[in-house]
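Protocol step 6 of 9: fold each sequence in the batch and record its structure tokens directly after the sequence line. For illustration, a two-sequence batch is reproduced in full.

Sequence one:
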Amino acid sequence: MCEKNSDTSLKQQVHDALISDIIKGVYSGETILTEKFLMEKYNVSRAPIREALTQLTTTQILISIPRQGYKIFQPSAEEIYEIVKFRSSLECSFLHNFSFCIVQDWINELRSICEEYMSCGADNFIGRWHYNCMFHLKLFSIYGNRYAYKQLQDALNIQTIYFIQKKQYASMDLHMALVDYLEKKDIAIAETILKADIENLLIPSASSIDSSNSPN
């Protein structure tokens, strides 16, 4: 039992280290990651590497290239558009239905994340995106739904890869206003702000994608 727990922990460590390197841009979109390379880099055996790779493939962070290895998933503009729409629906729905879970201590933590973002340099797009993800995950964690939280986390990870490749970052200009209205318990306006904040990440081609999906 102890050995199994140790293996599980090691797999998670490898997973976290690998995804951290991906998010930091250590690997280019053309890099082929092999089990042997990763075993040497992270100094672990094949089993935790395989488990971590399986998990990252399942969540679409990596894609398997038969007989070669793994590449970082490079989402298309349309896929990012769909993720943003998914997040908008998911996060706004949970805020609408579970706003009663939000207490002052949580509000204080959200405000603290906003303040940390503001101290981050304007050219530090990775740092700013990190705080954006932290804010949305902290807000969503309040609701206590681990399954939905994991879906949001996976969506944010895919967005992270896209924005790092494009050297773009998220603005958190609406986050402090959102926190203010949560504190006032004006959930209707808070929902509107949350939706605007998430959909502010829609890429320029989103309107054309939306038009192409509309009935004539």
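Sequence two, same batch, same settings:
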Amino acid sequence: MTKALIVVDVQPTFCEGGELGVAGGNAVAERIARYVAEHRSEYAYIATTQDWHVDPGTHWSDQPDFVDTWPVHGKAGTPNAQLHPAIAALRIEHHFKKGQYSPSYSGFEGYEDNTDRIPTRAQAVDDARNAMTLAGALDAAEVTRIDVVGLAESHCVKETALDAKRLGYEVHVIERLTEPVSEELGVAARRQMREAGVILD
């Protein structure tokens, strides 16, 4: 079995003190960093995903409902949109940016961009057409199992795991390496993932 590890949206914007901080986010970042250091050799492919919003339309709102609309977060080029320092220190090679000009939750909606540039709308359209997608990268690496970790379990981790399952992978979410926005939303997310066949470790 060829395994990949996807580190979803471990950015300061989603940790304590960030625009959409998740309680326990910084601790999750540190635990993921230790896990990668200890288990890196088990994975044929490791990648990160990042919210990298430039103008995501109604995804941002001055009066967010925290369901479909949110405060400004993951703003491309800002310090809080960078990888959490604990994750950046791992020097992971592959980075998938998502949501530049649209709402985005799943890492499979992004494309590989290992720079910090802020694309224009036209550039983002061209990049999405021509750059490596996460699905394409996993296929090229002949991956059969995906482990998903990161933030937040109730949103982007869940959506990434569900998309991976739809694509036919064996999918595991490592529970100690993620946190939900709230316990209520975490319970609902875990139920949805289990029902879809995602394995919660």
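Proceed to step 7 once all outputs are recorded. Observation for sequence two: The mean pLDDT is 97.
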